[in-house]
Design a protein that fits this description.
Helix 3 crosses helix 11. By secondary structure, the protein is α/β, with parallel strands linked by helices. Strand 4 and strand 5 form a beta hairpin. It is about 45% helix and about 15% strand. It is globular, with a radius of gyration of 21 Å. It has a 6-stranded mixed sheet, sandwiched between helices. Strands 9-6-7-8-16 form a 5-stranded parallel sheet, sandwiched between helices. A 3-stranded antiparallel sheet has the order 2-1-3. Bound molecules: pyridoxal-5'-phosphate. The site of pyridoxal-5'-phosphate has 16 residues, from helix 12.
């Protein structure tokens, strides 16, 4: 498979080069030049397989330059019961006759980002080997809270790599912050930014495309790469679990092969739902992709109207991993839906950068709104959903997953569509435990308690096991204390790299 940039500046790039560089040199995002198709026989075949074999089957056409045996080796290294606390990797839980939750948070950091970030280091190290230019990869990460920890954990002490994570200093949960600032490993750096996720992401993108800095890096044998979902290597492992969910529904005799389902994804940077879109494009029988937003509902407005407008107040919500106004991966969808028009994409992205808003043409908008459906959930509704899911199904969801389920309920009310639907459960309820406790436990039980105390309280009150990665966090030594302004990010990178 060869890849090209959404902005027209690069074509015929190998998977290894795409993964190594992360972002295309013209500032666009790499996309596959051909469509991989998966027939109903292929789907029938993966029904009998475990998660790992499903992953090998789905990943190998995208990673053909790595070879099948390497791909298999990487998959087996990433997805096993040392790294994941459930050997099914992404188990599907039946909530009602219509709705199923796919738990994507059984990895080391308790959010779905692990599924991609446990395998990405293998892909990246192999890509560096193939390039054979002796360069060390400097992985810059902007995080809204979960990617940062998952990248630190995936890349810690991986030879030939260094990781620098920027997180919004006051925009993540206590647990998320503590996970990152206590990170061990000789090649990892975590820095707080006095701004929001969009500031951190824009800062990282600017550093990535800073020609003068890149020149100095090359002189020192260093090259940038990305562990954000702008890197194709982050997205492609996420396609696997949507096929896996469908295969599980088949095994559970919930659907017939070929029957369409809906997929509901709590969305921020549009990475996870884009992977669902690619699955659909490959042949996964999908009726609607339901894009669930929180009060930072730029995407809902876009899907409904065709107007993307980030010029609005940034809201800090109880689903912080979705507090994003510039959803990078939408660019890949726009490329496809505009008939692969790099000139249109370039035009829209330039407007977004200069004016903060753009409007797509009617044809593109129509195609998007035929497949995607979107609504948002405010904080009161999100908390209410956590409570009602618990009362109805004796099942505990985190705030992000609750946004997904609330929006799914709105979809059913609006359309009457009762076909089987899968909601991506993106984080463990323990990771955002203050809001979960607030929704489920009496005020006097939680008053004045820290998130670390709440871990134990939630576990006792609800009879649930605390994920191993979240246990004992408060007793761990703080190792990263640096903070900078969005303008100071470049200087931090220079300092760390000795430039
Ligand atoms: C990252 C994240 C999201 C949003 O995913 P995108 O790929 O950015 O759309 C949703 N929920 C959780 C828990 C996350 O960590």
């Amino acid at each position: 498979m060869l890849y090209e940039s959404t902005r027209g500046g690069a074509r015929n790039v190998t998977a290894a080069d795409v993964i190594k560089t992360g972002i295309a040199p013209d500032g666009g995002l790499f996309v596959p030049m051909e469509t991989v198709t998966f027939s109903s026989e292929d789907i029938e075949a993966i029904k009998e397989m475990d998660y790992r074999e499903r992953a090998v089957k789905i990943l190998s056409p995208y990673l053909d330059d790595f070879g099948l045996s390497k791909t298999r080796e990487f998959v087996y290294n990433a997805y096993n019961n040392v790294k994941f606390d459930d050997e099914r990797i992404a188990p599907l839980v039946k909530l009602s006759d219509q709705l199923f939750a796919q738990e994507l948070w059984h990895g080391p950091t308790s959010a779905f980002k692990d599924i991609a970030l446990q395998i990405l280091p293998y892909l990246l190290v192999e890509s560096l080997k193939k390039a054979n230019d002796g360069k060390e990869a400097v992985i810059l990460v902007a995080t809204s809270g979960d990617t940062g920890k998952a990248a630190l954990e995936g890349f810690k002490d991986v030879e030939g790599t260094r990781v620098i994570v920027f997180y919004p200093e006051n925009g993540v949960s206590e647990i998320q912050k503590r996970q990152m600032i206590t990170q061990e490993g000789g090649n990892v750096y975590t820095i707080g930014v006095s701004g929001n996720f969009d500031d951190a992401q824009s800062g990282v993108k600017a550093i990535f495309t800073d020609k003068e800095l890149i020149g100095r890096m090359h002189g020192k044998g260093l090259a940038f790469s990305s562990a954000n979902s702008i890197n194709w290597g982050r997205l492609v492992p996420q396609i696997v679990y949507y096929f896996s969910a469908y295969a599980e529904l088949l095994s559970m005799n919930e659907i017939e092969n070929g029957e369409t389902i809906n997929i509901v994804v709590p969305t921020g940077n549009f990475g996870n739902i884009l992977a669902a879109y690619y699955a659909c494009k490959m042949g996964l029988p999908v009726n609607r992709l339901i894009c669930a937003a929180n009060e930072n509902n730029v995407l809902t407005e876009f899907i409904v109207t065709g107007i993307y407008n980030r010029n609005r107040e940034f809201k800090k919500t109880i689903s912080p991993s979705m507090d994003i106004l510039i959803s990078s991966n939408l660019e890949r969808l726009l490329y496809d839906m505009s008939g692969r028009s790099s000139s249109s994409v370039l035009n829209w992205m330039t407007r977004l950068a200069e004016q903060g808003t753009y409007t797509v043409d009617d044809g593109t908008h129509r195609k998007i709104s035929e497949l995607f459906w979107s609504e948002y959930s405010d904080e009161r509704e999100t908390l209410k959903t956590i409570k009602s899911i618990y009362d109805e199904f004796n099942y505990v969801v985190d705030t992000h997953t609750a946004v997904g389920i609330d929006v799914y309920d709105k979809y059913v009310i609006s359309t009457g569509d009762l076909r089987k639907s899968v909601v991506a459960s993106t984080a463990s309820p323990f990771k955002f435990n203050r809001s979960v406790a607030e929704a489920l436990l009496p005020g006097e039980t939680i008053e004045g308690k820290s998130e670390f105390e709440l871990l134990n309280i939630l576990s006792q009150e609800l009879g649930l096991r605390i994920p191993p990665g979240l246990k004992g966090l408060d007793a761990k030594e703080v190792r990263h204390t640096a903070v900078c302004s969005p303008d100071g990010m470049k200087e931090q990178v220079e300092k760390i790299l000795g430039l």
